[in-house]
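User: Modeling request: complex.
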Amino acid sequence: MGDFTMPSLGADMEAGTVTEWLVKPGDEVHRGDIVATIETEKSTMEIEIFEDGVVEDLVVPVGEQVAVGAVLAHVRAPSAAPLTAPRTGAPASPGAPPVVTGEAGKVEGVHGKPVVLSPVVRHLASEIGVDLERLHGTGAGGRITRSDVERAAHTVTRAPEGRPGEAPRPDAGRARASPYARRLAAEHGVPIHSLAGSGPGGSVIARDVRAAAGVRAEALRGAAAPVPAGSATKGRTAMRRAIGALMARSKREIPHYYLATTIDVAAAADWLERANLERPVNARLVLPALLVKATALAVHKVPEMNGFFLDGDFAPSAPVHVGVAISVRGGGVIAPALHDADQLEIGELMTRLSDLVARARNGRLRASEMSDPTITVTNLGDLGVETVFGVIYPPQVALVGFGRVSDRAVARDGLLGIRPCISATVSADHRVSDGHRGGRFLAEIDRLLQEPESL
Amino acid sequence: MSATRRVPPKTGPRSEAARADAHLVHLLTQMLRIRRFEEQCVELYSRSAIRGFLHLGIGEEACAVGVMEALGPEDAVVATYREHGHALARGISMRATMAELEGKLEGASRGRGGSMHIFDAPSRFFGGNAIVGGGLPLALGLALADHLAKRQRVTACFFGDGAVAEGEFHETMNLASLWHLPVLFCCENNLYAMGTAIERAQAETDLTLKAASYRMPAWEVDGMDVVAGEKTAPTAAEAVRAGGGPHFVEMRTYRFRAHSMYDPDRYRAREEIERWRERDPIPALTEELKARGLLDDAGLERIEAEVAAEIRDAVAFADAGALEDVADLERFVVSEKGGGQ
Amino acid sequence: MSEITYREAMREALAEALSRDERVFLMGEDVGRNGGCYAVSLGLLEEFGPERVRDTPLSESAFVGAGIGAAMGGMRPIVEIMTVNFSLLALDQIVNNAASLLYMSGGQFNVPLVIRMTTGAGRQLAAQHSHSLEGWYAHIPGLRILAPATIDDARWMLWPALEDPDPVLIFEHGALYNEKGELTEATPGLDIASAAIRRAGDDVSLIAYGGTLHTALESAEMLAAEGMSAEVIDLRCLRPLDTEALVGSVLRTHRAVVIDEGWRSGSLSAEVAARITEDAFYDLDAPVTRVCSAEVPMPYAKHLEDATLPQPVRVLEAVRRLGA
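Assistant: Request completed. Predicted assembly structure:
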C-alpha cells in the first residue's frame, strides 16, 4: 500500500485543493498517469502518480484543501497476477488524447466567442477523451454538440498511437459546475476547472466563479448589470499575492548577484534564417528556443547554476529542466519546466516550448512541470526590454534574463560593424556561486550562441 | 306494449292529409342522396382520398331523413360518428360534407374533424360526436339553455343502441326528465354496438323500457320505413317543443355494411344481412311511389341523375379544395380575439 | 377594508356573476338547498332561485356535459364539481368535449364554461377526496386552468373566467376556504393568465400555486431567518403557464424549487421544471428541484397525511441541497 500525497509543486506551495479526481477506487494506475487536478494559489495543475498500482480509496474529496504531503489517496501495489495487458485507457498517458477538463471559459465557438457547453457534451468528451478545444462546434452559435464530440471520438479511436477507443472514466468525484457558473466563468474568463466548488457535492456554482472573478455578487444580480470597470479580480489578486510572497522570500533569503553581457546573435539569426528555409511554416524555429537551449547546455560547464538550495545546502541537479517564464492571461507569471532541455534536439525543443506556453496559458500544466525547474529563463525581449535583472525562483539558484535583439555597433576583428545583439543577464545565488562562475556561465552561453549549428 | 309507457303518435301539424305526394318524392331523393354519397365514399376511401375511420350508415337513411324533416332551423342536432346522413339531411351541403371527409379547408369543420366530426353552426349541427354516449349530455345542455332562455326549441339527439349501455345515457335520461328539458332522444338501434349484438350487451333489449323508466314518453318505430318515421318524429318533436319534456324514439334499423371500412363483419350472419336488405327503405319507398303512380322509371332516373351530378360536383369541389396552411395548425385550440359567442 | 374568508370571497364572486349576467347560472351537487358542500354558495339559492342555482343529482358526466351544451347554447354556466376526484367521472366531457369542440369544429363552437372544483388534501379525507389532479387538466390543450390561492384571486378570478370564450377550470384548494385576509378592490392588473410574485427575493425561487403557496411563503419566512432571500412565485394560471415569469424569476435567483401538492411523476411540477431548464438553463446555478407529495394515495391518519404533503421543512431541505 502506498500513499499518494499532495505534492509540493513549488517552494511557495503550502497547501492545495483537489479540484478533480481523474481516477476512482479500483482503477489501475501506472507511473506517470495523471490522477487528479489540484489548485494552488498560483495555478491549477494535473498531478501524476509515481507508482504502479490500484487505487484503494480517495482520501481527500474534491474541494478540500490539504497541506503538502497530506495523503490524498491510497494505492495498493499491483496484484501478484500479471496484468494481461497494459491498461489502454489510462488517463492521459503520453500520446493519449488529452483528458478534457472541461473549461467552458476556454472553448471558443466558430466566431471566436466563448460558448457554453452542455453538461452532456462535457461529460461525454471527458469520458471518451476528446479535447473540446480542438473541436469546431456545429450547433447553434458554434456550440459544440454531442455529435461533434462523437465524430471527434471516431478520430480519437484511430489515433496513430493505436490506442483503442476505450477511455478513462475520470468522472469519479470530478468537480461539476452549474450551467450558470459555467456561463459566468466563460463571460469572465475564469477557468472554471480551477475553482473549488462550494455547491452541493463540491460542484462549482456561481458564487465560486464570482469569488474568483472578484466581482461583487450584487453587481451581477440582474442580467444587464455591468461588471464594474477596472475591478481587479480576486483570482488575479491571489496570484499576485502568491508571486509577491515568493519573490519576497527570494529577496529575503537569497543573496542575489547580477551580471550582464551583450551577445552578438548575428550568427544565430543567420542560422535560424537558413534552418527555417527548410522547415515547414509551423515548425519554424525562433530565437528564444536557441536561448533556452544555450542556457541548458551552458550549465554543463557551470553546474552551480543548476539545482536547488535546500536545507542550507546546494543540491546540484543532473537533469536540466529549464523553467520558462510565461505571462498568463489576466496577469501574473508562471515558469513551468521544459524537461531535459539540454537533451532536446532544437526542433523538438521548439515544439515543446510552444506546447508549454499554450498549456500554461490554458491552465493545463502538469504538476511536475511546476515543481521541476532547475533553472529559469526569462525573456522580455518581445516587450522591448533592453535588460532583465530577474529575481530567482526559490529554491532554484539562478535565473537567466534576455532582453530584446537590437542592432548595435560592434567592433569585431578590428572592424566596426552593425550587428544584432542581445543583452543576457544572470541573477545567481551568492550562497552557491560567485561572480566569477556567473561570468563563466554567461560566456558559455555566448560561445554556444556563436555556434548555433551545435545547438 | 303497455300504453302507459307508449305514447301513440298524435296527429301533428304536418297531417297525413296535408302532406303532398311530392313530399314522398323528396324523402326518397334525400335518402338517395345519402345512399349514393356514402357509396361514393367507399370508392374515395379505396383510393385514399378519405382516410381515418369511415362509418357508413347505408341502410339507416330513413332514420336521419325522417327525424330531420320534423325539425325547424332553430332546433339543434347532436349526432354520432355515423353522421353523414344526419348532416346531409340537416341541409349541410354535400360539398362541405365531402370536403370535410377529404380533409380540406372548405370542409364543414375545415378538415379538422373528418368523417366523425362534421359540425355546422348555421344549421345548429353540433357534431359528429365519436365518444359513444358523449353527445347526450351536450344535448341536455343545449336544451337546458333553451329552457333557461325560454326558447321553444327542440334538441334532437342521435345515438345508437351501444350508447344505451353507457352511464352517460342514464345520467342524461334522468336529468332530462327531472328537469323536463326539450330533448328528442333519437335512438338508432341497429342491433350492434360495433360487433356486439344487443342481446349480448343489454339485459333488457327493449330500449324503450329504459327510457320509460325515467318517466318520459318512449316508443319504437320502424327505422326502415321513412314514412313511419316521418309520422312519428314530428309528433314527438312538437310535443317536446310544446313543453312536454323529453321524448324518446327508438328506431329499429340496420346497417347493411360493416361498422366501418375494414371491419371484417364476422359477427353477423350473411342471411341476417340479406333478410334486412329485403327491407331496404329506398326500394321500399320507390316501389310504393311507383305503385301509387307518383314516380315512374324516367322520374327515378332523373332523380338518380341529379343526385349523381350533385355528388360529382361535391367530389370535384372536395378534390379541388385547399389543404389548410400548417401555419394555422394551432388556430382554434382557443378562441381567437373577437371570436366566440 | 375588512377581512373576509376565501369562501366568502368566492361567494361574492358568484353573487356578482349571477347579478351581472343573466346568462350565468350555477349548477352542481348540493349547490342550492345545501349551500354547497363547502358552503361556498350558501344563500345564493334564496337570492337567485332554483333555475339559476341548480342542484344536480350525482351525475358528474351529465351535468358537466350539460354545462358544455348550455355554454354552446348561449349560456354562461358555472359548474361546480365537489372534488377533483369526482371530476374523473366527467373526464370524458371535459377532455373530449369541452376542450376539443372548438378545434374539432374548425372554430365554429366555442365553449364558454367555467368549472369550479375543490382540490388538495390536508383535511384527513383520505384517498378519494384529497388528490391534486389539476396537473392532469393542465395537460389538455383548449382548457384554461386557474388556481386561486389568495383572497383576491378567489374574489376576482371568476368574472374574467366567465368572460373567457373557452372553458376555464378553477381549482380551489379545500384547505383555503377558511383562510382570512383583506380584500382589495379589483384592479385592472388582475388577469387570469400571469403568475404573480408574492414575495420578492434574490437567492432562490420558490414556485407554488393553490394550496402550496402558503407552504412556500412560510418556507420563505423561515429561510429569511437563516439569512436567505427567497422569491415566491404563485403560478395562478396552470395552463397556459406563464413561462416568462418563471424564467424571469430564475434569471434573478438562479435556483428554483417547485412546490406542488401533486405527485412528482409526470406532473405539473415536472412541466415547470422542464420549462425552466429549457428556457433558463444557462442561468441555473443548481438543478431545479421539486417538493411534491409522496407518491401514495392520500392516507387518512393525520401524521401520515402530513408526511405525504409538501411541508416547509422539506422545502428548506431542498433549498439547502441547492447550496443556496
